[in-house]
Amino acid sequence: MDKKSKILFFVFASMILASFTISFMRYIIFRDYLVEMSVDCDPSMESCFVYECDPLEEECSEDPEEDIWYYKMVEKKAYAFPECSSDEECEGETLCLPEERNCSVLLCNPEEEMCYGPEEYNESEEGLGEEWEEDFQE
Q1: Cβ of 126: how many Cβ atoms within 10 Å?
Q2: pTM of this prediction?
Q3: Where in the sequence is the domain holding 8, given as residue range(s)?
Q4: Closest by alpha carbon to 79, among 104, 60, 103, 51?
Q5: For the chain, which end, N or C, has fewer CB atoms within 10 Å of the first or last residue's CB respectively?
C-alpha cells in the first residue's frame, strides 16, 4: 500500500468508527429515540381507538365487555418512559407531563379510523338505561 491509500483507509475507517460510536451513544446509552405505547383511554371523555379480541388469533372470554379495550397512543422519548420489564405492569407516569418536550398523545380520528368517543359512549349508556328500565318494568 502506498502512503495515499493508507491515509484514505485511515480516514474511511475513522469515519465508520465515529459513526458507530455516535449511534451507540445516542440509542443505547442516552436512549434518544421515540417510543410509541398504547395506554388506557376513557371513551366517556375522549375519542379512543378500539381493540376487539379476535377469536381466530387469540383466546377470548365469553364476556364481550372484557374482549374490548379502549386505548390511545403516547409517543415520547425512550428515556422519559419508566423502567420496567415486559412481564410486569409499568409503574410510573406514561402520559405526557405539561413541561415535557417531545411528547404527544394520539387520539383516534373518527374520520379515518373506527373510534369510540363521548358521543358513542353517551348513546350506548342511554341505550343500556332504556333496556334496564324495560327489564325492570316486566
Answers
A1: 10
A2: 0.66
A3: 1-30
A4: 103
A5: C
